[in-house]
Amino acid sequence: ENVFDWDERQQNTVKGAFFWLHMVLQIPGGLLAQKFGAKSIFGFSNGLVALLTCAIPFMAKLNFEALLLLRIVQGLIAGVAWPSMQAMTGKWIPPHERSRFVSAYFGTYPMRPDHT
């Protein structure tokens, strides 16, 4: 039983909307990490995206456009997480362990729920 009467195009649009503005905050995210600390920016952005994830069922029931807007906002906020992670890697991971750490971290990227 389909709860939402969304065609395949709408479903794919919702999945991809997260990434539409995700790249916009990559450079500002690095600057924010330098100014306020990578750990703070990384934690704040991931925490806020997680909280907004709780709103997905409500927005989906409200209407397609509300869910689409939420996914765009989530992607925008999450845009600062990647540069923050890179800053933390450069600061906290010893040079001889960085390649293994980065491989493990980025290697899990294709297994994220938004890639299934």
Quick tags:
116 residues, mainly alpha, 7 helices, elongated, transmembrane, Vesicular glutamate transporter 1, transmembrane transporter activity, transmembrane helix, MFS_dom
Average predicted confidence as pLDDT:
87
Count, helices: 7
Shape annotation? elongated
Helix and strand sequence: HHHHHHH
Helix-strand makeup class = mainly alpha
Number of domains: 1
* Poorly predicted ranges: none
Largest sheet: none
Residue share in helix: over 70%
The Rg value, from CA coordinates, equals: 16 Å
Strand content: under 5%
Distance between the termini: 21 Å
Oligomer: single chain
Overall description:
This is Vesicular glutamate transporter 1. 72% of the residues lie in helices and 0% in strands. By secondary structure, the chain is mainly alpha-helical. It has one domain. Helix 2 (26-36) packs across helix 6. The longest helix has 16 residues, at 38-53. The radius of gyration is 16 Å and the shape is elongated. The relative contact order is 0.16.
